[in-house]
Design goal:
Layout (H helix, E strand, L loop, with lengths): L2 H7 L3 H12 L1 H8 L4 H12 L6 H16 L8 H13 L1 H16 L2 H5 L4 H8 L4 H10 L2 H10 L5 H10 L5 H15 L13 H10 L2 H14 L1 H10 L11 H10 L2 H7 L5 H9 L3 H13 L5 H20 L15
């Protein structure tokens, strides 16, 4: 392996993608991004914005790796579904890959559901507000967890727990039912294509949505679920990843995360953290930066708990983005899988 290839491999997958798109030029890059979902577009755009000091050697190395990967492929497009399933399952594990596979394969053939990903949470809530709770649960299962959490926040308070319980207990969706739902949404959002079967939903997606709800809403919803089904509530809690679970992230992962977090975010988030987590953060900073942060924490005036929780959720969102890119591993109640 050349020094240039070794240097390119040292950067994350998102950064390599960003460099590749820059090398292709605006028109070709735009055409590629047009086939991606909103979350992927956002993540890649942020990676492009964060690029600095991209040398000619790095760009040549990334292009070389890309060409090598393409040259190894034969019969492109044949058996693509099976290839996607095997690739993602091997990379992420069966549990993590399942929902992503369904969203990819389903999204390829659908228009109505896929277009929801580009709408504001309030617009989605207005669109599905009067639908049966089971329909709402299916729609939320198709969305990314952060978008689904925002939509739940816009729905009537007395419906949230019921809907989230339905997300958690979804075991499968019949192809004809999913196709009918897609067609209904399609008529409202334009377009017309068929869809395939899906296994969207489950405890883990519901827990991911709960993680991203505002603190007070999450607590209230979880209390209501506990009253209705204590066993399901415990399952959800076991699968939730909260700020304190950053203790389970290894030191290298914490260092990667800290490079993405602003000092203001970190200062606010640590106001509500226990001492063990604070010490882990300090240990993965330079001694000077750690000392300054300690001093700032001691001197900082009182702040609203809601502001602290908001900062923690922002950092958790960054952590999940890095985990999705394969740059860090999140631990916690969900075990050692990528989440």
């Amino acid at each position: 392996m050349t020094d240039e290839n070794a240097q390119a491999l040292d950067i994350g997958g998102l950064e390599r993608t960003a460099i590749l798109l820059l090398a292709l030029g605006e028109q070709d890059a735009a055409e590629i991004l047009r086939h991606m979902g909103p979350k992927e577009v956002q993540d890649i755009s942020m990676a492009i914005a964060g690029l600095s000091k991209v040398t000619t050697d790095m760009m040549e190395a990334v292009l070389s790796q890309f060409l090598e990967a393409i040259e190894k492929e034969t019969s492109l497009g044949l058996g693509a579904d099976d290839y996607i399933r095997r690739m993602l399952t091997n990379a992420l594990g069966e549990d993590k890959a399942a929902g992503m596979i369904d969203r990819i394969l389903l999204g390829r053939d659908s228009k109505g559901l896929e277009q929801l990903k580009w709408l504001e949470p309030r617009a989605i809530a207005e669109l599905i507000r009067l639908e049966h709770p089971q329909i709402i649960a299916i729609v939320l299962s198709f969305l990314e967890p952060d978008q689904a959490a925002a939509v739940i926040g816009e729905l009537p308070e007395n419906t949230r727990a019921n809907i989230l319980m339905r997300v958690a207990t979804l075991e499968g969706i019949q192809p004809n039912a999913l196709a009918e739902l897609d067609q209904i949404l399609e008529k409202q959002l334009t377009g017309n294509q068929n869809v395939s079967s899906s296994t969207l939903g489950g405890v883990k997606p519901a827990a991911n949505i709960l993680n991203l709800l505002d603190g007070s809403i999450a607590t209230q919803v979880l209390e209501q679920i506990t009253e209705a089904d204590e066993e399901l509530s415990q399952e959800l809690q076991d699968n939730m990843f909260v700020f304190e679970n950053l203790l389970d992230v290894d030191d290298r992962g914490i260092q990667t995360l800290l490079r993405e977090v602003s000092s203001e975010q970190l200062l606010l988030a640590l106001r509500g953290a226990d001492e063990a987590l604070k010490e882990k953060i300090f240990r993965n900073m330079s001694s000077r930066a750690a000392e300054m942060l300690r001093d700032d924490l001691e001197a900082a005036p009182p702040v609203k708990l809601s502001d602290v929780e908001a900062a923690q959720k922002e950092i958790l969102g960054i952590a999940r983005r890095l985990a999705d890119a394969g740059e860090i591993m999140l631990g916690g109640g969900g075990g050692d899988e990528f989440v």
